[in-house]
Write a structure and sequence with these properties.
Elements: E1 8-10, H1 19-23, H2 30-36, E2 48-49, E3 57-65, H3 72-77, E4 85-90, E5 98-100, H4 102-110, E6 115-118, E7 121-122, H5 125-131, E8 135-137, E9 139-140, E10 151-153, E11 157-159, E12 162-164, E13 169-173, E14 176-180, H6 185-207, H7 214-221
Helix pairs in contact: 2-6, 4-5
Length: 229
């Protein structure tokens, strides 16, 4: 007969990126990071900040797996959280019940977390804003959940269609959340300067009157555009 599994499985020790490395991503637009990774890396577009005025963050991923409408693993993640962590909760996109509210947000802030990202719903929007911690979710509902389990902390999960492992880099802003795998952080950082330079150059061209993208002009010049009138 199979033994009853534990309600929680918690990995407390895993490698996090150096804070000095994470800090270099603090104010980098998420779109720049996506460009550095071939156009991918952002979680589902519906996962957005509760407070648009407090949406910018960068930190190390602390993943937890919650069942639909359950937040036991999210509560357990608070025991593992360290300064600079981003708590990500995989709630399978369930929108019937909230898995986090203002008190959990306040406790995460007190533990040193820099953000919470939920693949699910939250409640207590006003209290979350007052807590001062960036919190991203699929939406707000007053419906509350139970802490029943089972769940995991510090193990790989999927949030908004993106795989997240403990210690990955997580960056957020008003556009959304991007996950940079830990083994790609240095490569993304090295490419970031080129992306920034290209964006700056394009901004200057638009400011100086550019109205037609170069790719369209090239296609037209090569006879690849057929005008119908």
């Amino acid at each position: 007969m199979i033994d009853e599994p534990p309600l929680l499985q918690v990995r407390r020790q895993f490698r996090r990126p150096q804070p000095s490395l994470v800090q270099q991503f603090r104010d980098v637009p998420t779109g720049f990071l996506v460009d550095c990774m071939g156009g991918r890396g952002a979680v589902d577009w519906r996962i957005k900040p509760v407070d648009m005025e407090r949406a910018t963050f960068a930190g190390s991923a602390l993943p937890c797996l919650c069942g639909p409408g359950d937040n036991l693993a999210l509560l357990a993640a608070l025991t593992v959280a360290q300064a600079g962590d981003v708590i990500l909760a995989a709630g399978e996109g369930f929108e019937g019940l909230a898995i986090c509210g203002d008190r959990v947000a306040g406790m995460a802030r007190n533990r040193g977390a820099v953000a919470i990202v939920l693949d699910g719903m939250a409640r207590d929007a006003a209290g979350i804003r007052a807590a001062g911690l960036p919190l991203f979710c699929r939406g707000i509902t007053p419906n509350s959940c139970n802490a029943s389990g089972p769940g995991t902390v510090g193990e790989p999960i999927v949030v908004g269609g993106v795989a997240v492992r403990p210690g990955d880099l997580v960056v957020g802003d008003s556009d959304g959340v991007v996950v940079v795998p830990q083994e790609r952080i240095e490569a993304v950082l090295a490419k970031l300067e080129r992306v920034k330079a290209a964006e700056t150059a394009m901004d200057a061209k638009v400011a100086n009157g550019l109205g037609i993208p170069a790719v369209i002009e090239r296609l037209a010049a090569a006879g690849q555009v057929k005008y119908l009138d």
